[in-house]
Design brief:
CATH superfamily of the largest domain: Crystallins
Radius of gyration: 17 Å
Number of domains: 2
Helix content: under 10%
CATH topology of the largest domain: Gamma-B Crystallin, domain 1
CATH architecture of the largest domain: Sandwich
Length: 197
């Protein structure tokens, strides 16, 4: 007797509301949305429920501005997704699922200089403080994601700006800190963790 193949992960899905605490008009997303105002008809997003998958939300349309990682769960107001970010955003206007969010198979290499030059560190685990693990600089010049998906933070303790790093975007290669996102004005990365799947 043969057994049926194990089912794959459920498709990514999340529901958005235009008011806090899951009130007001709502819109459900199953794929990338460059502008929730146009596609979903919501004037703003004030609460989010992630049913499946992991998502990255952006404060502006077209995947621009501050990034916020949204893992499975409820986000009843902006403080739930901003957390201890140095930049609080009370609006989210574009969304996309995170690719390759396999927590068990994640590898990233940090480089001191641009274009994968200088000292390097290979990581396969979460690090709440890169300086305490021996990374001599507060900055990371470039990085390569070999597998999985990661979220890097500006400060130790998973605080500050968030940068979502995926193997299947940019081929996993970020040659300069400017490729981390439109809000990346510095290469300061001091903590990093694997994305929860």
């Amino acid at each position: 007797m043969s057994s049926a193949p194990a089912p794959g992960p459920a498709p990514a899905s999340l529901t958005l509301w235009d008011e806090e605490d899951f009130q007001g008009r709502r819109c459900r997303l199953l794929s990338d949305c460059a502008n929730v105002c146009e596609r979903g008809g919501l004037p703003r997003v004030r609460s989010v429920k992630v049913e499946n998958g992991v998502w990255v939300a952006f404060e502006y349309p077209d995947f621009q501005g501050q990034q916020f990682i949204l893992e499975k769960g409820d986000y009843p107001r902006w403080s739930a997704w901003s957390g201890s970010s140095s930049h609080n955003s009370n609006q989210l206007l574009s969304f996309r699922p995170v690719l390759c969010a396999n927590h068990n198979d994640s590898r990233v290499t940090l480089f001191e200089g641009d274009n994968f030059q200088g000292c390097k560190f290979d990581l396969v685990d979460d690090y709440p403080s890169l300086p305490s693990m021996g990374w001599a600089s507060k900055d990371v010049g470039s990085l390569k994601v070999s597998s999985g998906a990661w979220v890097a933070y500006q400060y130790p303790g998973y605080r500050g700006y968030q940068y979502v790093l995926e193997r299947d975007r940019h081929s996993g290669e970020f040659c300069t800190y400017g490729e981390l996102g439109t809000q990346a004005h510095t290469g300061q990365l001091q903590s990093i963790r694997r994305v929860q799947h």
